[in-house]
Structure formats: C-alpha cells, structure tokens
C-alpha cells in the first residue's frame, strides 16, 4: 500500500519512477506524463489478436480489414468489455486520445497510399463504361440510402444533436454509395480477375466511385463543420482552390524535382521520400484547418504523384509495411472498440439492420449489373460486376468513423452500419467465386473468340469439309516448334543457350550491297537463287512474379503492362532470343506463389505450345531469389515449395514438359564458384591488379554432346525424338543407348559406379529402403504397366520383336538421314543392372570435354515396361554406394524420376533434361504408324486412328 501511494505521490509531483516495477509500479496504470508503457500493451494486444484472427479468415480469402474490425469488436465492450475492470485497465478513457492520435496519423498516410493506388489513367482509358457503371452504382444506392435515412434520423438521432436532416441524409447516401477501392483491387487480384473484362470494368468504375465518394464526403464534413451556409460555401471554394493549386502548381514542380533527382527512373531516394511525406502532412494540415478532414489532404497528394517509371509503386513499397502492420490495425480496432453489438437490443433495431444490409446489396448490385448489361456484358458477368461494386471494406469504415467523430452518427447507427460493412465485405468473395468460377471464365472467353457456341459445342472453321473434330485437325507433334519457357534471372544464360540449340541451323545471310549500287548489279543478280528464310522456332517467355500481401503488389498487377516493359529479365530474353532465329513473345504475370503452376499451365495452353520448358531453380525458390549468397547446390533439391510447384505443373499440363537441371550448360554454374582471397605483401603491393577481374574468354568449342538412356515407355519415346531434333544442329552429337534388363546376363567386370559424391546432407534421413522411395514411375499405376508386359521369358526373340519399345527404337535408328547418322549413334546393351550401367555409360559419354558449351543427359521422367521393379530396387543400392542414401530427397525424386535422381546424385558433369510426354506427343504405336508415312524431320504429321 505504501509503495502504491509513493508511486501516486511521485506522479503527482511530476517526478518519474526510475525503478519501474521494482518499486511497485503498475505497468497497466495510465500515466499522462509517460503514456508509452500502456500504449505498448494496447498495441501488442491489438496486433496479436488481429493476426490470430486473420489466419483462419485468410483461408476463406477474406481481406485483413475483416480480422481487424472483428478483433476490435472482441476486444471492445461487446465481448471482452463484459469482464469486470477490463476496459478501465487495458483501454481506460484517458488513454484513448493517444491511441486515436497514432491511428489517425497512420490513416492520413494510408489515404495517401490509396491516392497512389488510384491511377487516373485507367479511368481515362475506359471512361465510357467506367462512368456508366460508377454512376449507376452510386445513384441508386444514394437514393435508397437517403430514403432510409429519414427513418434512422427520426428513430435514433439524439434530440439535442444540431445536425440537420439534409446533412444527415447526404452522409447516409454517401455511406451507401461508396465502394472500397483498395479491398476491391485485392479481391480482383486474388481471384485472378484483374486482367479480364470484368476486372478492368470494375477497377475503372471503382476509381471513379472512389474519387466522387471522397469529394461528396468532404462536402458533407464541410457542411457539418461550417456554422452557416455561407461558411460552407467558402470552405468548398477554398477546397477547390487547394485542389487546383496541387494539380497545376505543386505537381509540375514535384515532377521536375523528381526528374532532377533521378527518382522517376531509379525509384524515390530518401530525400524524395522525406519531401513527399512533408507534402502529405502539409496538405493534411491545410485541409484540417479549413474545416475538411485531414485525410483528404493525404489523399490529394497521393493523386498528384506520378506513376511514370513505377514511382508510385516504389514509393508505396517504402512506407506500406509500417502503415499496414501497425497503424491500420490500431485504427480499425478502434472502430471495433466503438462498436457495441449489445446496443442492437430490440426487434426494431434489427429490422433496420436487415433493411440497411438489403439496401446495400440490392442497390449496388442492381445499379452495377444494369449498367454493365447495357455496355454489352452477359448477365452473369454483369451480376459479378454488381457484386464486386457492393464491396464496402475499409473505406466504408473510415467514412463511418468520420461520421461518428463529427457527431453525425449515434453509436447505435454506427454499429448498424459497421455490421453492414462487415457482411457486404465478407460476402463479396464467395459470391464472385460462385457467379464467375474459372470454368465459366474459360467458357465465356472461348465463346467470345468464336471457338464454341453458347452451349459449349465446338464450332468448325469456315471452309472445312472434312467434318473432323478439332482434336483431329490439330495433328500430332513429332517436332516441337512452339515452346513456352519459364523465365528466371538465375537460369537465363542456360535457357538462352538451350533455345539456341532448339532453333537449329541459321541460314547464312546474303552479303549486303550499298543502296547506291543496287541498280548497277541488279541485272547480274536476277539469275541468282533467292534465299528462303526457314520457319523459325516460336518461343514464349513467361515471367512469374510473386503477389504478396502488400498494396504495392496489387498496384503492380494493375500496371503489369508498364512493368513488363521495364522488367530486365523479360527485356534481355526478348532481345537476345531475336538473334537466335527465334520468333519470340514475352509476358509477365503477378500471382500468389500457390497459383504459379496454374498460371504457367494456362499460359502454355493459351499459346498452343507443344513443349513447356521449366528450368529447375538454382536456389530452391520458386521466384527469383534476391540473395543467392546462402544458396547451395544441395538446397535447390530440398525445397518443399518448389517441388510442390513442379508436381502441380506435371500433373496439370496437357503439353509435353521438359525440366532442365542446369549444371554448366552454356557456362559454369554460378553457385559452384567459390570466392576466396588471401592477403600477402605481394597482394597488398598489387591491389589494383588483384581487384581487377580477368575477362571471361569465349567458348572455344561451341559443341554439345547428348547422352540419352532408353528404357521404354511414352516419356522415353518423346525424349528420344527430342534428342534427334536437337541433334539436327551440326555442332551436336548424341549417343542413344537402349538398356534392356536381362536377369541372366553377367555384369561386365569394369561396370563400376563413379566415386561417391561429396554431399553432406544433414537435413535428410540417413536410411533408405525400397518402401520409402515414392518414385512416380508412370502416370499410370504400376498394375496397368505390369498388365501390358509380355508374359514370356526374357530371352525369347518373339518377345523382343513384339516389344513396341524395341520396334520404335529400331525404327528411329533406321530412319536417320545420312547426315544425321554421322552425329548420332544408336546402341543396345543387355544387363542385369540397368541403372548402374546408365550411370556408368553417362560418365563415359559426357563431361569429357572441358572446353565445349556443356553436355546434356536427356531422360524420360517415367520408365515403364520389363525391368520396372529392378530399377526401383537398384536405386537403393546405387544411392547407398554413392554415400547419399537419401539422394536428392523423396519429393525431388517424385518430380524427376529414378534415372534422373541417380544421374544427379552421382555427380555426372552434365546438365539433366527430364521429359514427360503430353498433348500431341506420339506414343509408341502411333509413332510407328505415322513415322512410316512421312519423314521424321517433317515436323507435323496428320493424326489418324484416334
């Protein structure tokens, strides 16, 4: 008791308690001279509660604002406030002004970010449909809101409140008509609708709705703060003058300073960030002192900031984390603390709750739907647009808090509208997913392109008299000519080298003649044969960027076209691929990392690609890793996230997939280089020479050697044909070995494995058995595979002649042209250790030349046929002999298959290419039939018998 009294006395005299809790201080006791302690307690409770609530809500694709408001309701008088002494201890009334001050400061900066996010250029590009949808989405809700405002004003407004009904009606109408643009952009991005017709219309209309809504709200606040109508007019005129001053004087001067500083090209410097925040605070100060809320000043500065060069995105990246992680939870939790669900205590109040929610849904959905329908959208698309426009989100809560602080709303009406905002925001995502699912998006896009009728029937092309289906018209691919490749910065050199290999031989260009001499020699060249350019390989580069929870990521999605033009990886690939006899196109997509596989598969399908090339990550990350210093060659195979991504692509793609594990293809692997420096007297004297990097010499021998073991199955057949396509280039040689399992064959005495690989793998188990190798041997189950296996002895020549794998292999060997037979060798080897021999032969074939441009081992992902179980069992002994009983890990083994696993772990000095057949790639029987009708190099043959 004495310690508490001494603490109180010290507080009364102004002397701070130096020893804190050691002298009996209560940390939850509010001290006006030192409020930081209680503020830390309050902020910690709020942040922890909001994060815990956001985790389950995010699984339902709900925005974070839902968790923050619900957290405030739980922490407020509705739930926790019922505990005796809770509110007076944790959220005492004297401490609320400080909490509100910090939250409102964050709100000013957040509205600045909202202004940055609003791109007026999008509104100007789609002004017709944006104006119609935005106007209809505001007029009808505003009118119905004004109608219900009469009942709310007469039923719940305090008798001593000086707010007139006209101002009250205006505010309720604005609260009903407004749309939450930031939350809307997030929902569109997560549902992958931002680049669709629906997304563009909603986003454009949301920009107009947002700007008009804030203007009307500013007018409402000005009317509330003005004593007379003349004063309100003065406030409005001063506000218009301030807007014109910012647009025509401040903005040009600001852009001039940014150009001089280089911030438009290189991103905002620290000085420009400070200048921008000073502009935000100055504008907020001015709008506050003239009678308009301070947040409008921050919003206006955000609107005038330039978007050129990605300045708005980079500025958002600088400050958004602190605002979204600390300031916004405090503000919206304050909304929850002010919300008391207990005030909804009778039937009349709940009737108004239902009425307000019904009007919010009906008015916004009806207005947006009718306007979209009049602009040519189908009914289902129009309904989706209307549902999206009904989203209220955090903007609605900001409006409601302004109304509560200004005395327009009572606490009971404030609670009614908070419930409405939560329901409309929560329902938006489920309703959109129900109305506009991915399958319907695919159908409507195909219908608009004229590929199908409204019932989903495929429309035949004009002039087609054959009556064949589209699947039959497409034909079967025997030579890959359309490729989609995943672009990463780390794998760009190897990908470009591989594309150069696929492009084949380039025609030598004719000697150029000066234009002044063309007429002189024209007659002499009339008889010369013209050079016909070869049809180039078509390659589409796909760059994937992760969509994070940050607002800047959403802004990047809306500005993806401009971002694509500036992206260095896209530009380098596009520029260099043009010189490789390749017809190239590129695209950049921003999506959550969990959707990378779906986006890549969809893009490959849209491009009608017959091959999807995926370079295996050098670091284990799906997207580009910003820092590769801690990366190692081992970590690239143990990333669960990357392996899951590869498996999703393998399971979902329709075309053939090639996975490339780079090990010096086109140059040394960057991660294999180690830098070390020792200091000596000589190095100190010659520091300049030591710090100068030696130039990298050009590749002396641009040739490649390919080794491909053939075990059988569709994937191995595709791999064999692909090797022949690569070998059509004159600097490529290849060895293709068919390895046949024979149990009674004696192993060659020199058949030994290479030395154990130097791999230290503490992260993997040390024991391995056949049972825990979940190898994916085929896309069919093993029962089906075994049922197709001949039930005759291994040594029978009848079995060998009836084996489709043997027939295919022999046919490919016999169909080689004379030129190609000089570079490609076919061999057959029988052994009771097929996997051991594959490693032994690979070590003998590749990695022998240190000066060439890199060798390649090409394998099929799945092996099916006779000897299947032997390969599975043999992998255990191979990995155990190599000293890495876990290999690259079970997940990686599922992605790449047994043979690729053994090749990778054995340390063979060559890159590995794993192929999985798909799409129009021929199986064994179809290949035999069609290969006899046409030459292998013909590219595409007709599909028959399907």
Automatic annotation (TrEMBL):
Domain Cation/H+ exchanger transmembrane: from-to ranges: 47-434
Keyword Membrane: yes
A Pfam family recorded for this sequence: Na_H_Exchanger
Region Disordered, residue ranges: 747-805
Polar residues bias: start-end ranges: 766-775, 783-805
Major localization listed first in the record, in broad terms: membrane
Record membrane topology: Multi-pass membrane protein
Entry's localization field: Membrane
Alphabetical list of InterPro entries matching this protein: Cation/H_exchanger_TM, CPA2_transporter, Na+/solute_symporter_sf
UniProt keyword list: Ion transport, Membrane, Transmembrane, Transmembrane helix, Transport
Transmembrane portions of the chain: 35-53, 65-86, 98-118, 130-153, 165-188, 200-224, 230-250, 271-299, 319-337, 349-371, 383-404, 416-436
PANTHER family linked to this entry: CATION/H + ANTIPORTER, K(+)_H(+) ANTIPORTER 1
Name listed for the protein in its UniProt record: Cation/H+ exchanger transmembrane domain-containing protein
Record organism: Discina gigas
């Amino acid at each position: 008791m004495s310690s508490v009294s001494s603490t109180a006395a010290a507080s009364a005299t102004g002397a701070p308690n130096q020893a804190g809790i050691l002298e009996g201080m209560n940390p939850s006791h509010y001290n006006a001279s030192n409020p930081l302690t209680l503020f830390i307690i309050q902020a910690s409770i709020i942040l922890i509660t909001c994060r815990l609530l956001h985790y389950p809500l995010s699984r339902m694709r709900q925005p974070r604002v839902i968790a923050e408001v619900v957290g405030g309701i739980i922490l407020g008088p509705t739930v926790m406030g019922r505990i005796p002494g809770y509110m007076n201890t944790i959220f005492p009334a004297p401490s609320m002004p400080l909490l509100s001050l910090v939250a409102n400061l964050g709100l000013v900066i957040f509205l600045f970010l909202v202004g940055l996010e609003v791109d007026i250029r999008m509104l100007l590009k789609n002004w017709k449909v944006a104006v119609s949808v935005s106007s209809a989405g505001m007029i009808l809700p505003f009118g119905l809101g004004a109608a219900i405002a009469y009942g709310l004003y007469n039923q719940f407004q305090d008798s001593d409140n000086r707010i007139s009904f006209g101002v009250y009606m205006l505010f309720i109408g604005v609260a009903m008509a407004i749309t939450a643009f930031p939350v809307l952009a997030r929902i569109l991005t997560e549902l992958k609708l931002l680049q669709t017709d629906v997304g563009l219309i909603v986003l454009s209309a949301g920009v107009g709705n947002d700007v008009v809504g804030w203007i009307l709200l500013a007018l409402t606040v000005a009317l509330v703060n003005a004593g007379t109508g003349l004063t309100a007019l003065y406030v409005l005129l001063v506000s218009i003058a301030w807007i014109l001053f910012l647009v025509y004087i401040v903005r040009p001067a600001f852009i001039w300073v940014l150009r001089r500083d280089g911030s438009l090209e290189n991103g905002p410097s620290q000085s420009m960030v400070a200048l921008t925040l000073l502009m935000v605070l100055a504008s907020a100060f001015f709008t506050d002192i003239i009678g308009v809320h301070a947040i409008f000043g921050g919003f206006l500065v955000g609107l005038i900031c330039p978007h050129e060069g990605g300045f708005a995105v980079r500025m958002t990246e600088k400050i958004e984390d602190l605002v979204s992680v600390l300031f916004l939870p405090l503000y919206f939790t304050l909304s929850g603390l002010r919300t008391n669900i207990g005030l909804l205590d009778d039937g009349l109040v709940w009737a108004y709750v239902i009425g307000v929610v019904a009007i919010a849904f009906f008015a916004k959905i009806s207005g947006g739907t009718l306007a979209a329908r009049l602009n040519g959208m189908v009914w289902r698309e129009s309904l989706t647009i209307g549902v999206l426009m009904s989203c209220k989100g955090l903007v609605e809560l900001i409006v409601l808090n302004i109304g509560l602080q200004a005395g327009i709303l009572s606490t009971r009406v404030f609670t009614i509208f908070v419930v409405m905002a939560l329901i409309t925001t929560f329902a938006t995502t489920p309703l959109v997913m129900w109305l506009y699912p991915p399958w319907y998006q695919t159908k409507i896009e195909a219908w608009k392109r004229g590929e199908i009728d409204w019932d989903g029937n495929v429309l035949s092309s004009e002039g087609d008299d054959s009556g064949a289906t589209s699947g039959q018209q497409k034909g079967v691919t025997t030579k890959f000519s359309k490729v989609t490749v995943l672009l990463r910065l780390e794998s760009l050199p190897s990908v470009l080298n591989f594309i150069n290999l696929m492009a084949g031989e380039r025609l030598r260009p004719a000697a150029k003649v000066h234009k002044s001499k063309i007429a002189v020699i024209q007659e002499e060249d009339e008889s010369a044969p013209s050079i016909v350019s070869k049809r180039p390989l078509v390659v589409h580069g796909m760059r994937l960027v992760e969509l994070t929870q940050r607002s800047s990521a959403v802004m990047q999605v809306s500005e993806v076209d401009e971002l694509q033009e500036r992206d260095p990886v896209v530009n380098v690939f596009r520029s260099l691929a043009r010189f490789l006899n390749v017809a190239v196109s590129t695209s950049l997509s921003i999506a959550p990392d969990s959707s990378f596989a779906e986006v890549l598969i969809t893009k490959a399908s849209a491009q009608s690609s017959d091959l999807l090339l995926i370079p295996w990550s050098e670091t284990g990350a799906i997207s580009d890793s910003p820092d590769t210093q801690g990366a190692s060659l081992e970590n690239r195979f143990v990333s669960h996230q990357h392996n899951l991504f590869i498996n999703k692509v393998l399971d979902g793609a329709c075309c053939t997939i090639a996975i490339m594990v780079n090990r010096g293809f086109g140059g040394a692997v960057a991660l294999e280089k180690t830098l070390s420096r020792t200091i000596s007297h000589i190095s100190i004297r010659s520091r300049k020479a030591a710090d100068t990097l030696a130039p990298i010499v050009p590749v002396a021998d641009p040739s490649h050697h390919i080794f491909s073991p053939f075990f059988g199955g569709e994937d191995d057949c595709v791999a064999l044909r692909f090797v022949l396509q690569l070998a059509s280039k004159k600097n490529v040689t290849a060895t293709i070995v068919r390895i046949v399992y024979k149990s009674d064959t004696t192993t060659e005495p020199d058949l030994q494995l290479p030395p154990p690989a130097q791999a230290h793998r503490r992260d993997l188990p040390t024991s391995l058995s056949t049972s825990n190798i979940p190898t994916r041997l085929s896309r069919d189950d093993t029962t089906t595979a075994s049922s197709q296996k001949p039930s005759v002895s291994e040594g029978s020549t009848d079995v060998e002649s009836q084996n489709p794998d043997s027939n295919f292999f022999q046919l490919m060997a016999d169909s080689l042209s004379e030129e190609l037979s000089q570079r490609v060798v076919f061999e057959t080897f029988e052994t009771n250790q097929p996997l051991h021999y594959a490693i032994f032969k690979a070590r003998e074939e590749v990695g022998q030349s240190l000066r060439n441009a890199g060798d390649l081992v090409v394998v099929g992902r799945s092996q099916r046929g006779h000897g299947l179980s032997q390969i599975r069992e043999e992998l255990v002994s191979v990995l155990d002999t190599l000293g890495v009983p876990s290999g690259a890990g079970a997940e990686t083994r599922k992605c790449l298959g047994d043979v690729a696993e053994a090749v990778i772990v054995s340390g063979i000095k060559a890159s590995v290419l794993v192929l999985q057949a798909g799409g129009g790639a021929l199986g064994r029987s179809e290949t035999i039939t069609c290969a006899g009708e046409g030459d292998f190099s013909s590219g595409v043959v007709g599909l028959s018998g399907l």
